[in-house]
Each structure stands twice: as structure tokens, then as C-alpha cells.
Amino acid sequence: xxxxxxxxxxxxxxxxxxxxxxxxxxxxxxxxxxxxxxxxxxxxxxxxxxxxxxxxxxxxxxxxxxxxxxxxxxxxxxxxxxxxxxxxxxxxxxxxxxxxxxxxxxxxxxxxxxxxxxxxxxxxxxxxxxxxxxxxxxxxxxxxxxxxxxxxxxxxxxxxxxxxxxxxxxxxxxxxxxxxxxxxxxxxxxxxxxxxxxxxxxxxxxxxxxxxxxxxx
Length: 217
Known about the structure:
HAD_sf, Rossmann fold, hydrolase, 7-stranded mixed sheet
């Protein structure tokens, strides 16, 4: 049995949600309505994020990158968690609904880029365009954009032990298919609503401690 960990980025590895922060700082006021529509399920995550970023001029690329990389705080214990995963011979993939222009630079000192999957940003047009390189496969019809269950199926097999770490609506579909869920914030609400068993966490030390108790290698 292989142990595969699929970990969210924004609001999970980071203290704050960079997508939300960028939208508040750079997108048009109409994006606020789109945010609530995504959280309520009125529109898909892909459609919402795509429309929000399409209101941002591509000329803001450098300003956005600087803003995010300088303001991002990594959640306590993540560096130790990376070492723990390596020593335990677990397979870790970061699956992020975030965008490559900030996700890869922030994680460059922690993980190889091949272990980080996120959306691709195109700044060649007047406004920002997002390319969904990890969209839904034939088993998913949720129009996720970054389809975390599809990524999970691509990088795991049926006899693997699947661990999901997340905090938001973007982590719900993959959490439904996990053997073990670590949740915080909005994902906790959804897990309780759907009676999905989960372990709450505040930092990555909590996760490491729980894994030492919960997972049989």
C-alpha cells in the first residue's frame, strides 16, 4: 500500500488565500458577487475564477507577483512536514487552484516543480487569461477548473491510501474520495454537513502528529 498525500495550497500551506487576496486587491468590484456565487454553488469554480481574473489587466503581472510573494506567510510546521514525508516515504503532491505565477515561486524552496500542480496564467492579452491544464476527466462533471479528483486518479491507484489536506470548497470533491481528511475553515463546515469524517488542524505539526497515530505503514 502506497500512501499518497494531496495537499491544497492557498489557505492550507499558506496562512491566507492568495486568490481571494488578489481578487480583493486587483479585480473589479463585480468580482465580489462572483466570489459569493462560487461559494454558494451558483456557478462553477472554473467559471468564477476565470471571470474574476478576466477583469484584471495583464499589465498588473509584476505588481501582483510582488504583492503575493511578499505578503504570503507559510503555515507553521510545513518545512518539518516536508522532511517527515520524505523520511516516511510518502508521496506528496500539492494540488492548487492557484496560479503558476505565484504558486511556483513561493514553493520553489520546498518542493520540486513536478510535485506542484496548479493553473497556468497567460498575460499575453489585454486581460489575464487562465489555462486549465488539470481540468475534469471523464469521471467528473463539476467543471472544477483545477480538478483535484482527476489529479488524484492520475497519480494514484485504487489500492493506495489517500490523504487529503485542505480548507475550502475547492477541496471538497477530492475529500469525498479520501481515506483520511485533514480539514480547516470552510472544508470543516462541508465535511460536517455531509458527515465526512475529518481531523481538524491548525498547523502542519498537528498533521504530522496525527499521521504518526493514524497511518499504518
